[in-house]
Design brief:
The protein is α/β, with parallel strands linked by helices. It has a single domain (about 15-150), classed as Lumazine/riboflavin synthase (Rossmann fold, 3-Layer(aba) Sandwich). It has helices spanning about 25-40, 60-65, 90-105, 120-125, 135-154, and strands spanning about 15-20, 50-55, 75-80, 110-120. It is globular. It starts with 14 loop residues before the first strand and ends with a helix.
């Protein structure tokens, strides 16, 4: 049996992070976690590009264009959608994740999902570096592993 898996080595690789400005109290912590993870795994800070978009709705379009640019080994999508008192949450959260899933299936490089969808600000903050870890870090770890696996599959 042959088994293939990606290694968590970022040396010589280049990554893009696309992040929302909306809910920046949370998303800036996700960015910090993602960058910390990439750098700790050998990615040079100059090999990380950060793209900012207004909100989660804009993520799929921006990630699609970034993933289509030459020179990246992977893209990390970061954002935060917090439930409010209207159905707006369901539309934005659903279309954002659906759109990013479509981009991930069509891209030739890995696209990872670090978009929080929570009921409260406290839940979001817990997932951005307090009680529940940092989901930006987790998305970066996934992109490292998938970038190496994609390289093996070429």
């Amino acid at each position: 049996m042959n088994e293939f898996k990606g290694d968590l080595v970022g040396t010589g690789k280049r990554f893009a992070i696309v992040v929302t400005r909306f809910n920046s109290l949370v998303t800036e912590q996700l960015v910090a976690g993602a960058i910390d993870c990439l750098v700790r795994h050998g990615v040079q800070s100059d090999d990380i590009d950060l793209f900012r978009v207004p909100g989660a709705w804009e993520l799929p379009a921006a990630v699609s264009r970034v993933a289509g640019r030459e020179g990246y080994d992977g893209v990390i999508a970061l954002g935060c959608v917090i439930r409010g008192g209207t159905p707006h949450f369901e539309y934005v959260a659903g279309e954002t994740t659906r759109g990013l899933g479509m981009v991930a299936r069509q891209a030739t490089i890995p696209v990872t999902l670090g978009v929080l969808t929570t009921d409260t600000v406290d839940q979001a903050l817990e997932r951005a570096g307090t009680k529940a870890g940092n989901k930006g870090w987790d998305a970066a770890l996934s992109v490292l592993e998938m970038a190496d696996l994609f390289r093996q599959l070429e």
